[in-house]
Design goal:
Strand content of chain B: over 45%
Distance between the termini of chain B: 36 Å
Helix content of chain A: under 10%
Number of helices of chain B: 0
Oligomer: heterodimer
Helix content of chain B: under 10%
Shape of chain B: globular
Number of helices of chain A: 0
Radius of gyration of chain A: 14 Å
Largest interface: A-B, 28 and 30 residues
Largest sheet of chain B: 7 strands, mixed
Radius of gyration of chain B: 14 Å
């Protein structure tokens, strides 16, 4: 079945540092890929997505590229801020004919950004 | 209008009791999903509704779990004979399906269920 593996946290960085959170996936078809973020005390929010190979999703300075050859969707940001502290979830949805686009999530990576 | 609304935000119950968790999706969203998130884990899919019907209930862990969406809007997740292992945050999401996939699911804040 489908699965998502992401690097374990917590990841602790200084402000303005470069961020990479690794994510790899296993899927039977050609899934869409997502990064969701959960800020402290808030619900899950979509951060960015990519629906086909070589697509790059980007939002709020974050970006991730759909790499079919390596089955990866690593999240990157060039300069993190304290306000980026949150838990980040990589997820995929497979396209099921007649069915929904249920999401399969990774276990989440907690990011802490310090001054 | 408003986002996905889930009530109650917290529910404490005793082992063996029956609970109902409610989800009010974004107006006009035909697709509704339930997920369960245990501590330190990512959300796990439970059930998906398209309109009033449960199109995929493959994630329900056993027959103590049931969900309905009688009018194609509000959904209720029902858990019978609760067990301590049912303690988790139950998340609801809704979306407007997009051809070819990649539809965005909008999540509620969740109901934290604690079974004592």
């Amino acid at each position: 079945g489908d699965s998502v593996t992401q690097m374990e946290g917590p990841v602790t960085l200084s402000e303005e540092a470069f961020l990479t959170i690794n994510c790899t996936y296993t899927a039977t078809g050609y899934p869409s890929l997502f990064w969701y973020v959960q800020y402290p005390g808030e619900g899950l929010q979509l951060l960015l997505k990519a629906t086909k190979a070589d697509d790059k999703g980007s939002n709020k300075g974050f970006e991730a590229t759909y790499r079919k050859e390596t089955t990866s969707f690593h999240l990157e940001k060039g300069s993190v801020q304290v306000s980026d502290s949150a838990v980040y979830f990589c997820a995929l949805s497979d396209h099921v004919t007649g069915g929904g686009n249920k999401l399969t999530f990774g276990t989440g990576t907690q990011l802490k950004v310090e001054l | 209008g408003a986002g996905v609304s889930q009530t109650p935000s917290n529910k404490v119950t005793e082992k063996g009791k029956y609970v109902e968790l409610r989800c009010d999706p974004i107006s006009g969203h035909t697709a509704l999903y339930w997920y369960r998130q245990s501590l330190g884990q990512g959300p796990e899919f439970l059930i998906y509704f398209q309109g009033t019907g449960a199109a995929d209930d493959s994630g329900l862990p056993n027959d103590r779990f049931f969900a309905v969406r009688p009018e194609g809007s509000v959904s209720t997740l029902k858990i019978q004979r609760t067990e301590r292992g049912d303690s988790a945050v139950y998340l609801c999401a809704s979306s407007s399906p997009v051809a070819g996939g990649g539809n965005i699911q909008y999540f509620g804040a969740g109901t934290r269920l604690s079974v004592l």
